[in-house]
Amino acid sequence: MSKRHSAKHKLDRRMGENIWGRPKSSVNRRSYGPGQHGQRRKSKVSDYGIQLRAKQKLKGYYGDVTEKQFKATYATASRMKGDTGQNLIGLLEQRLDMVVYRAKFAPTIFAARQIVSHGHIRVNGVKCNIASRRVFVGDVISLGDKAKEMALIIEAQGLAEREVPDYISQDGTDKITFVRVPTLDEVPYPVKMEPNLVVEFYSR
């Protein structure tokens, strides 16, 4: 399991956006970048810089995904039929930790990864602790017995800041079915994501 060594909300300030849509994000108070030079006037960004920023923002949104994992996901997306950018989004949304987050079983993507790694999630009735596992259409994701009583999960289910998207079908409060692989327009990102720029970045 990879570990995020930098502060989560520092990424928000580096991007100048509240990429997870969280009320506690520091960008809500300080829109400039982190560090002692964060308030300096911004210089013109090159095409490469724009593409890199789009990649870092998308990768950062999915939590503790390493560069190696993210690049491998892109490589898989590029081999699939259809639009590579759309394929990339679909593959990222099929990660087990992201499905757990979308189902509101966890308040943040980081908490979702931890819940999975601690063995609190069942896939088609079988315990799974691999956060990067790919979820397929028709798979049923449910909470383990202990998880149903966890305060963190109960809190997440009561969050008003986000809704369960249409490509996830709820069955009560502890079970969901992954209905379909979403397109970019269906994914409820709090900020604009540009997978086409990510494709350009890796195509250089």
Describe, in plain words, how this protein is organized in 3D.
With 204 residues, the protein is of the alpha+beta class. It contains eight helices and five strands, in the order H-H-H-H-H-H-E-E-E-H-E-E-H. The protein has a five-stranded antiparallel sheet, covered by helices on one side. Helix 4 crosses helix 8 and helix 5 crosses helix 6. The N terminus is likely disordered.
Structural class: alpha+beta
Number of DSSP E strands: 5
What percentage of amino acids are in beta strands?
Answer: 5-15%
Order of helices and strands: HHHHHHEEEHEEH
Averaged pLDDT, please? 85
**Which oligomeric state applies?**
single chain
Number of helices in the DSSP assignment: 8
Biggest beta-sheet profile: 5 strands, antiparallel
Shape: globular
Strand order of the largest sheet: 2-1-3-5-4
Q: How many angstroms does the end-to-end distance come to?
A: 29 Å
Unreliable sequence segments: 1-6, 25-29
Helical fraction equals 25-40%
Question: Any chance you could write out the topology, listing elements then pairs?
Answer:
Blueprint: H1 8-15, H2 47-61, H3 67-79, H4 84-93, H5 96-102, H6 109-117, E1 121-123, E2 126-127, E3 140-143, H7 151-157, E4 168-170, E5 175-178, H8 195-202
Give short descriptive properties of this protein.
8 helices, 38% helix, 204 residues, five-stranded antiparallel β-sheet, disordered N terminus, alpha+beta
